[in-house]
Structures are given as C-alpha cells and as structure tokens.
C-alpha cells in the first residue's frame, strides 16, 4: 500500500510539473511585441433592423486606453433615432439624428457600448461599423499555443484522475455529518432571520422609490431586461434562441416590447432561465408598465438572495474560525448575492438550489444532491462549471451505494439526470458562440490562453503564475487534511484559466467551498485561498483593483 501511495505521489508530481509547464508555455505564446506602426481592425461590421420603441445595445469592447475608435452608422432609409456611445462611467456621445454619421473618439480604460433607440414608425435597417486603430502587436511565440493547450488538458486530466483514483477511498471521510457542527441555537437563527428580513425590507423600499426605467440602481446592468425579451421570443422561435444570435432573431421580430443586448450572441443561459423570465416577458408583451415589471423581477431576485444568505450564513457563521474571517466571508457573500440581485442578476435562484444540493451532499443524500444540482444547473451553467468536483464525486457515490442500479424507481436521480441532459442540450446549441470570444471581450485577468483586453501582459502573466503557485501550495497543504478540497482546488484552475471573463455575481459558486467541514486552521486557510482566487479573478483593468476588487457597491 505504501509503495502504491509513493508511486501515486510520483505520478501526481510529474503531472503537476507538466501542468505548470503548459501554463508557462501558454503565457509565453501571447507575449506581445509592439511595433511602431498603427493597425486598423474592424471589430463590428453588422446590419440589424431597428424597430419602433426598441432598445438595441452592442458592445464595442474593452480597451487599454489610447486606442482610436471610429463608429460609422449607415441607414438605407432615413428615420430619426437616438444614438449613444456609453461606458459604465459616462456617456461619450449622444445625439438624435436622422442621417448617417461617423464619429471618432479616443478610448479610455473602459468597456464601451453603442446604444440605439427610435420612436419612429418607419424605423428600419441600420448598418453598424466600428474600427479600432492601435499599434500593431506581434506575437513571436504564438506557435507555442497549440502544444500548450494540449499539454494543459492532458496534465489537468491526469492530475484529477490520479487524485480521484488515489484519494477516492478517503475523499469524503471528513465531509460526514451536517454542514457544520455544533447545531445553531434557536436564538442565533432568530436573530439572523430578523437581520435578513430588515435588510430585505430596506432593499424593497429602495426598489420601490427607484426611478430608473430598468429598476436597477444604474443603467449599466441589463441582463434581466434581455432575458425577459428572449423568454417571449422562445414562444415564437423555440430552441432557436439558443442557437441563433439575438440580433438575427430580433431583426425578424415585431413584438410590442424589444430590448437587445449582446446581439451577436444567442441566449447563453439554460432553459430554466427562460421559464423563470417567461411570466415577466408575457407581462411586458401585454403592455404592462416595463418599470413595474422590472421591479417585480428584482424584488424576486432580492427575496431569493436573502433566502440564500439565511442558509449560507446559518452554516458559515457557526464555523470554528476567527471572527475576522467570518466578517470577511459575510461581506463577500452579502455583496455578491444581494447587490447583484439588485442589479438584475438572477444567480441567487440557481445558487439556492446549489446550496440545497451541497447540504444533501454533505449529509450523504447523494440522490437528492443530483436532483438539486440538476435544478441549479437548469437555471445557470456556472453552477455546473464551478461545482463539477462535487458532481463527479456525487455520481461516484451514487454508483457506490447502488442507488443508480435502481434509478428507474428513484425519482430524484432520474429527475436530476433529465435536467442535466436538457441543460447539456442547450449548452451544445450555444457552444459555437461560447467558444468564439472577440479579443476585445477577454476580461478574465488570469486567462492563461488569451491576452487580456485591458491589462498589460506582465500583469496578466504575474497574476497567472501567482494564482498557479498559490493554488498548488494550498492543494498540497490540504492533500493529507482534506482530499476533497485538494481535488477541488486543482479543478478550479481549469475554468479560472480558460473562461474569457469572470463576473462578480459568479463569486457565490466559488465561495460555497467555504462550507466544506474542516478544522479551525484549515477553515481559515481555505477562506484565505478563496479570497485570493476571487480577487485574482475579479482583478481587471488596473493593478490597483487587485486590492479593491470588492468595491462593488459603487458599481450598482
């Protein structure tokens, strides 16, 4: 047995060496050499039909700052339209016009969008052309990219396989029991419930007096409006909403209420999101006041966010950890759940079922874990991306307990598998678009396979290598203490290094690992690592944001 463990450790070490080498080669593959000549690139060349009272937004991209951007608008038919160029900080240009226009500006370190709106009954086709002039950048080591990707995938697969095969017998031995122990007192639960109810009431009051037409606390977050419109399109176009760009479908549509963002993309969320927004989309198409409908949406998300907080904090705050780490954890989960629910993000719905799933996992009810995690992924793919280690182990435990052998009689397992299958099908339909991300839209600062659209290469390379080193050190530290967390952290490098962008509202799917039962020192080390990885994923645009990535309140 000892020889077997020694051999496994050697193979694991070799796999990690190749894993590290693949990251180094990949980072080197996009090392930039800036030339003295400028190059003009076309980032948007797209035609769409603008309908009366439709809002149409399209992202130009995120930039370092200093690039010369030219936007050209051409319309075969003359009609009056409002045209704006905006970013999260300001409006660069805004005007009502009925003629073609060419407008140039110098980009700042922001993400810029163009916005169209028309009240004209003869609103028609628009051709949008956007070009970016910037110094020509050469990548002399780009030939390393392909071999680095192959080595990365093989080494990650080998590392996870070795960890699973070697550590599986003891993989969940320290995960037995409830979410944590000892059990919480009734007084604690009542106080927590009272504080969360107070928070919810305050947010609902703020929401009721909010005059923003989109019901958010600024005009930047628009996901809930897009999702409401797409849900109504689903009744007309069916599963085409997952395989056809929204701009294409909207150009053929004449609905009462139309709101288009990310027109080059189809619906990038699972079928559950369609069903969630369908009642709101129906109300909008039947003429109900849009602001009222959007307030109802956000009110629902806020309610779900506070329910999530209750279940999460009821487990997290009674952990055996220093008060400082509990306060930091409270801040992270509150901000990432509640503030972004107020911004129109519905992740709290998916996260609630993920929490229930983790509860079932830790209490060894693996059949119900599959059900709840299937529901969670049915609403948001990110639950499946970040919780995949739990899913793999959960299915292995189901097979081990022979539950799967009688799955026809197990409604929980079969329901979970059906939901996972539906989500897999819609992901397959959208996959060609998910895998094609413009360079200007790469905003994950530790993406190891594409240059960041705003951060200089040396910042990105440093961030990637520090993230890799910190994670491997943490995984090695936890290997003999909590093999499940050691396995999970290595896996989390996969989406961290591949995803083109990471949003603040994805944080709960990562921070949920803080609920895994551990001793006091291990809990604190885990929370520290989770904070570090979240900071690195959220760090973008400016190196100072590494230390202030959680200034989310100012963004809502």
What are the salient characteristics of this protein?
556 residues; alpha+beta; five-stranded mixed sheet; four-stranded antiparallel sheet; 18 helices; 9 strands; 53% helix; 13% strand; globular; disordered C terminus
Largest sheet: 5 strands, mixed
Strand content: 5-15%
Give the C-alpha Rg. 24 Å
Poorly predicted ranges? 176-183, 541-556
Tell me the span between the first and last alpha carbons.
Answer: 56 Å
Question: Order of SSEs, N→C?
Answer: HEEEEEEEEHHHHHEHHHHHHHHHHHH
Helix content: 40-55%
Query: Structural class of the helices, strands and pairings?
Result: alpha+beta
How many H/I helices? 18
**Mean of the pLDDT scores?**
87
User: In one word, what is the shape?
Assistant: globular
Strand order of the largest sheet: 5-4-7-2-9
Give the number of DSSP strands: 9
Model description:
The protein is of the alpha+beta class and 556 residues long. Helix content is 53%, strand content 13%. It has helices at residues 2-29, 145-167, 186-209, 223-237, 240-243, 246-251, 271-285, 290-316, 323-341, 347-362, 366-379, 381-386, 388-400, 411-434, 457-478, 483-498, 507-511, 520-538, and strands spanning 33-49, 55-62, 68-74, 81-87, 91-97, 101-106, 111-117, 125-138, 259-260. It has a 5-stranded mixed beta sheet. The longest helix has 28 residues, at 2-29. It starts with a helix and ends in an 18-residue tail after the last helix.
């Amino acid at each position: 047995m000892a020889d077997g463990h020694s051999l496994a450790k050697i193979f694991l070490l070799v796999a990690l060496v190749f894993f590290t080498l693949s990251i180094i080669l990949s980072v080197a593959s996009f090392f930039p050499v800036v030339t003295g000549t400028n190059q003009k690139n076309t980032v948007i060349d797209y035609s769409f039909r603008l309908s009366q009272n439709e809002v149409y937004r399209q992202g130009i991209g995120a930039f370092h700052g200093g690039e010369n951007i030219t936007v050209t608008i051409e319309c075969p038919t003359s009609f009056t339209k409002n045209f704006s160029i905006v970013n999260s900080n300001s409006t660069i240009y805004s005007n009502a016009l009925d003629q073609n226009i060419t407008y140039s500006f110098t980009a700042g370190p922001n993400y810029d969008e163009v916005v169209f709106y028309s009240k004209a009954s003869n609103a028609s086709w628009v051709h949008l052309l956007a070009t970016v002039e910037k110094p020509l950048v050469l990548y002399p080591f780009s030939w390393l990219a392909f071999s680095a990707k192959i080595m990365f995938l093989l080494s990650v697969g080998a590392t996870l396989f070795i960890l699973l095969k070697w550590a599986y017998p003891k993989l969940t031995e320290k995960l037995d029991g409830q979410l944590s122990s000892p059990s919480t007192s009734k007084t604690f639960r009542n106080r927590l419930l009272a504080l969360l109810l107070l928070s919810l009431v305050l947010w609902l009051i703020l929401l009721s007096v909010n005059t923003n037409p989109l019901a958010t606390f600024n005009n930047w977050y628009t996901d809930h409006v897009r999702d409401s419109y797409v849900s109504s399109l689903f009744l007309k176009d069916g599963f085409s909403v997952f395989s056809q760009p929204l701009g294409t479908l909207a150009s053929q549509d004449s609905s009462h209420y139309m709101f288009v963002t990310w027109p080059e993309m189809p619906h990038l969320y699972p079928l559950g999101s369609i069903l969630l927004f369908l009642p709101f989309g129906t109300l909008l198409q039947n003429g109900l006041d849009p602001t009222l409908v959007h307030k109802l949406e956000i009110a629902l998300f806020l309610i779900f966010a506070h329910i999530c907080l209750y279940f999460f904090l009821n487990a997290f705050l009674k952990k055996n950890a220093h008060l400082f780490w509990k306060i930091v954890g409270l801040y992270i989960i509150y901000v990432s759940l509640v503030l972004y629910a107020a911004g129109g993000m519905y992740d709290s719905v998916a996260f609630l079922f993920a929490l229930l799933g983790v509860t079932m996992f830790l209490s060894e009810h693996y059949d119900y874990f599959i059900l709840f995690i299937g529901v969670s992924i049915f609403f948001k793919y990110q639950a499946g991306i970040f919780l995949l280690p739990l899913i793999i182990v959960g299915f292995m435990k189901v097979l081990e307990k022979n539950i799967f052998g009688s799955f026809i009689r197990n409604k929980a397992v079969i329901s979970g598998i059906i939901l996972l299958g539906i989500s897999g099908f819609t992901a397959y339909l959208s996959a060609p678009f998910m895998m094609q991300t413009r360079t200007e839209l790469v905003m994950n600062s530790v993406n190891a396979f594409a240059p960041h659209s705003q951060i200089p290469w040396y910042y990105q390379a440093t961030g990637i290598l520090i993230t890799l080193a910190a994670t491997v050190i943490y995984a090695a530290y936890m290997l003999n203490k909590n093999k499940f967390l050691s396995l999970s952290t290595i896996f989390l490098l996969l989406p961290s290094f591949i995803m083109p962008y990471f949003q603040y509202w994805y944080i709960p799917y990562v921070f949920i690992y803080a609920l895994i039962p551990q001793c006091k020192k291990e809990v604190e080390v885990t929370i520290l690592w989770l904070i570090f990885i979240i900071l690195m994923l959220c760090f973008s645009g400016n190196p100072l944001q590494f230390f202030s990535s959680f200034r989310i309140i100012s963004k809502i």
